[in-house]
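In this section we walk through a basic example: taking a raw amino acid sequence and producing a predicted 3D structure, encoded as C-alpha cells. The instruction is simple. Fold the sequence below.
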Amino acid sequence: MEGAKGREGNEAADGQSFSASTAALFHGAKGVFGNCRPVSTYEKLGRIGQGAYGTVYEAIDKETKRPVALKRVILHNEKQDGFPLTSLREVALLKRIAHSNCVALLDVAVGRNRDGVFLVFEYCEHDLAHLLETVRRPFSVSEVKTVMQQLLRAVAYLHDNWIIHRDLKMSNLLYTNRGQLKLADFGLARTYGYPPRPMTPTVVTLWYRAPELLLGCESYTTAIDTWAAGCVLGELVRGEPLLPGKTPVDQLSLTCALLGTPTERIWPGMEALPALRGGTMTVPQGHQYNTLASRLPELSRAGAALLDALLTYDPAKRHTAREALAHAFFAEHPLPKEEVLMPTFPAVHAQPSAARGSGGGGGAGRRGGGWADLDRDAVSAAKKPRR
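The resulting C-alpha cell sequence is shown next.
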C-alpha cells in the first residue's frame, strides 16, 4: 500500500479550497478540467434532490440518451479559493473506485462561462430512505439479504482499498429498478493507513454512529462502517430506524438500552476514550441485557447473531464486512433473492424542494445525503465575508 501513512490528509483543512491540482485531478473524467463537456449537452428533466448543500437534477445525455444525475458543486469566489477541497477529495476517490455497488462518476460538466461545475453520475431511481418513507417494509427477508450482501460487498471493496466511507446511512444507499444497490456520497470518505491517524469523530449521521465515535475516539477504524451497516440491517427489518437518537447522549442511551451497558471487561480501553476520560459523557447504567433478538423478532437466530456481530461495542471484535458476508445468515433459507427478481418501485422524478429532505452529514435523521447532500466546504465558504 503506497504511502498509507499520511495519505488521508489533514482533517483541519476540510474547510479550505485550492485550485493548483484541479486540472490534474479531472484528467481522465473527460480529458482535463478545462476541456470538460458543457452542461448544455445534458437535458435537465427535473430536480430530484434539494438539500442544504445544493441541487441534483435528473437529466439525459443528449449524445448517448443515457439517464444521468447531475450533482452541482457550489462555487463561491472560485478565483480566490479554487475548487472546494471536499469535492476534490470526493472526485479523487470516485476516480479510484470501480465496483458495481458503488455509484459511478461518469463525467464532469461545466456551466456557461464555467461558473458552475456538475458531477455526472449514473442515474438511480431511488434511495432507501425514501423507499422506507413510502413503503414501510419494501423488502422481504430474502430481499433484505440481497440488499445487505450488496452493501457489504461495496464496504468490503472500499476497506480492501484503504477507504473508510464514514457516512453510511439509508439516504446514501441508492437503489435501481434493476435490483442493484449503489453506495453513494463520498464527501466524508477518507483513505487510511496503519496505525490509524487522528480523524474527527463527528462523522456519520447520528443514528448510524458507532459508540467509539460517540465517546470521542479519533483513531477509529473501518469498524465504524460495519456498525453503520448493522444499523441499516436493523432498519430494513424493522421498517424504522433502529437507534433514532436526538443527541449524542441520547444516542448512547438508546444504544445501551438495546445492547446492554458496556464495561471495560467487554470493551477494553473504553474508559480511556476522551468523552469518558474528560467527564463530558457517562455510560448509562442499569441495562444488563442485550435485547436485539426480542426487539427484532422478524430475524432468525442467525440473523440476530449477524446483527449482534455488527453491533459489537469493541471495534476490534466487531465483524468486518468480509466476515459478515460469510455469515450463516446468508446461507439459510430463505436464500438471498437474485437481483433480476428484486422488486421495482415507481421512479421518483422532479419533486418539490422539501420533498427529498435536507439533513446534513453529521445531523440526526434519516433524510439528507445521497443526491441531495452536496458540497459542505462551499457552504462554509459562503458564510465567510468577501474580501
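Looking at the output, two observations stand out. The CA atoms of residues 211 and 252 lie 7 Å apart. DSSP finds 13 helices and 13 strands in the chain. In the next section we compare this with other chains.
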